[in-house]
Amino acid sequence: MEEEHMPRRELESIHGIPLYWCFVEKWGQVEAFQARPDDLLISTYPKSGTTWISEIVDMIYNDGDVEKCKRDAIFNRVPFMEMSAPNFINGTEQLDKMPSPRLVKTHVPVQLLPVSFWEKDCKMIYVARNAKDVAVSYYYFYQMAKLHPDPGPWNEFLEKFMAGNVAYGSWYDHVKGWWEKAKDYRILFLYYEDMKEDPKREVQKVIQFLGKDLKEEVVNKILHHTSFQEMKKNPSVNYETMPSWALDHSISPFMRKGISGDWKNHFTVAQNERFNRHYEEQMKGSALRFRMEI
Ligand code: A3P
């Protein structure tokens, strides 16, 4: 795929979920994807800390060996299952060729996950992040990642986000859907805000979930290597190795701020009030609770 072939295009739809045209084109491969029992699925709504948890898990799999984790870019170590762009990357094909145990990244809402993951009872880690920070992070990502349609001004983008008219659809449905599934399947449900507040506690949860036993010094190494400051300067995770026609870091770096509560620098008082009312309606009846800052 070359630059002239990557003009911004409107989202298409797959089973009612807005998504990039080139993913939709190859959706048959996603539906037919064969999970293996020892796959670990990393699932998130976009901009919720996917890259962060992916690097943590790869570090755990490699017993804290930093050099091993620099062997390749994160999108090759943890392939993005539904990713497909002509002559560029195809996630399912990457995964089919990959030896076990595989780490698999996805952003699909629960109803779009290939059935083989449920049939094989794969372990899964879901990371959820508060909606306001996700909306802000997504706004910058829309601008720098050319796969997206033009986000327009912030106010318009925020309306689209609330209406679920963004890639991968409604944040509300996504988090509620995965939260419900976590009651019946082997899903570790984590929050970005908890990871910010106490990364050691959360990394230890992951280690335990994966059935590993790592020495304290290895855990500390993992924490250092996966801190925002370290990841921001690490080309194997900061996406700078992606061609600029796909991701334009001069517009906004992929490793942007890495904090909780940045929404306060973007939401007006009126936007916040409107968002809160809509949020209440959408989350009514759910036991899911998010912290909007820490
Ligand atoms: P911001 O845009 O708010 O800075 P994803 O990997 O799901 O696309 O999520 C990207 C978001 O996670 C970005 O948020 C990015 O800065 C943040 N992030 C990435 N690595 C991080 C880390 N080690 N610690 C905290 N936040 C991180």
UniProtKB/TrEMBL annotation:
Keyword Cell wall biogenesis/degradation: no
Keywords: Cytoplasm, Transferase
Domain Sulfotransferase: 37-286
GO cellular component, as recorded: cytoplasm
Predominant cellular place of this UniProt entry's protein: cytoplasm
Gene Ontology MF terms in the entry: sulfotransferase activity
UniProt superkingdom: Eukaryota
Localization terms from the record: Cytoplasm
Transmembrane segments: none
A Pfam cross-reference name: Sulfotransfer_1
Keyword Cytoplasm set for record: yes
Enzyme class: transferase
Enzyme Commission no: 2.8.2.-
Family membership noted in the UniProt record: Belongs to the sulfotransferase 1 family.
Protein name: Sulfotransferase
